[in-house]
Amino acid sequence: MAAQVPAEELNKLSVGEAGATKPKPSTATATNGNLNHDSDDDDEPEEEADAPEATGSAKKKKKRKPRKKKKNPTAQTDPPRVLISQLFPNNSYPKGEEVEYVGDNAYRTTNEEKRHMDNIQSEFLTDYRHAAEAHRQARGWAKNHVKPGMSLTDIANGIEDSARALVGHSGLEEGDALRAGMGFPTGLSINHCAAHYSPNAGCKIVLQEDDVMKIDIGVHVNGRIVDSAFTVAFNPRYEPLLEAVKAATNAGIKEAGIDARLGEIGGVIQEVMESYEVEINGTTHPVKSIRNLNGHTILPYSIHGTKSVPIVKTNDQTKMEEGDVFAIETFGSTGNGYVHEDGEVSHYAKRGDAGKVDLRISSAKALLNVINKNFGTLPFCRRYLDRLGQEKYLLGLNSLVANGIVESYPPLVDKKGSYTAQFEHTILIRPTVKEVISRGEDY
Ligand code: HZT
Ligand code: MN
Ligand code: MN
């Protein structure tokens, strides 16, 4: 089956995966995926040959200072298994996309006090950039390898084995997953399912040629979670849907900044989203913003903070503030533009405000210890319990949910037969600039 890949999907592959058709190790270098061309200048992807041109009488020979040998010529493998910390030594990870503030906040970029504040927060910036590079490389694997005919289980494992290996979550030491690893279960949500589907054990779902799949990946380092998602489709008929949602998310990112009002950002997102339509099998559908899905703040070890970013116009006057971290995510749909919970649950998380309950079911007590040790308040899924060797935990898990200690996050679906798409980035509202930490050459 010759999968029809939209030209855009082919052209916008992460540069970190360039050359991935070759056997391992790939030719990708440590610096691929770095968007920031004005950072260090010793990180050029390729060394230009300084030898004179063989036939070059007509060509001008570039005069160039002889360059020092590249510090880190380490190549990433395919699948990616080389530590990000090895590819980028001395804790110098690639920056995301830095965007200067405008208007009343334009002064911040050069302001001495703001720059000082920025500098003292560099520790958490390092962790975010580290996690973001792992995210780009793990999703690069997905962009190159996910094809119709693959099972969702193989896709999830391919992504998660990559992400864990890249941040050094070996699974061999206790508390490993709490230092770095998955920030939440990989979402693989297809068609009318918009979010929070991840395969449980025994899942037989295979990706189909005409499917629209949202791939939502969370990677964390020291609890700093990078939450970023994209949508894949193999039939080009969905291109306008994907374009609508990508443009809507970028519009939201552009509106974001210190003192930006959340309800207004929603209005801009909706305006962009709903300027598109998509024709499927001879029927033209308006693209709708899914009005009960939102972006959100992110806190250490906690995937949702207290602020929500609507994707339709609302009168929420809440402002973005310096120091906030936001997941800007938008969802477009050919259906109702409204989701409900439906289907088997895969995603769970211990509640941050979980009080002390005397658990009378021994399996619940035992499972809570496993959760505390391995996930804390980070979301997890049943597969993560399976890989830890846990068995017959469902009764205990359900009792933790019933007792309000663990929250379940069921799949979120629009009406049957509809198609939904998502794009998402994590952005840092730094004192001097906003940084789109998860930005890549791909999206
Ligand atoms: C919950 C559980 C998870 C957060 C958004 C989201 C994936 O819909 C406030 C606004 C992972 C994430 C979340 F396992 N959710 N982003 N990426 N899902 S949410 C939410 O529950 S809470 C949105
Ligand atoms: Mn997400
Ligand atoms: Mn999110």
UniProtKB/TrEMBL annotation:
Disordered: annotated segments: 1-97
Gene Ontology terms describing biological process: proteolysis
CDD domains associated with the record: MetAP2 (cd01088)
Enzyme class: hydrolase
Keyword presence, NADP: no
Keyword annotations of the record: Aminopeptidase, Cytoplasm, Hydrolase, Metal-binding, Protease
Residues annotated as binding substrate: 196, 304
Biased composition annotated in UniProt, kind: Low complexity: 18-31
Biased composition (Acidic residues): 39-51
Free-text function comment from the UniProt entry: Cotranslationally removes the N-terminal methionine from nascent proteins. The N-terminal methionine is often cleaved when the second residue in the primary sequence is small and uncharged (Met-Ala-, Cys, Gly, Pro, Ser, Thr, or Val).
Protein name: Methionine aminopeptidase 2
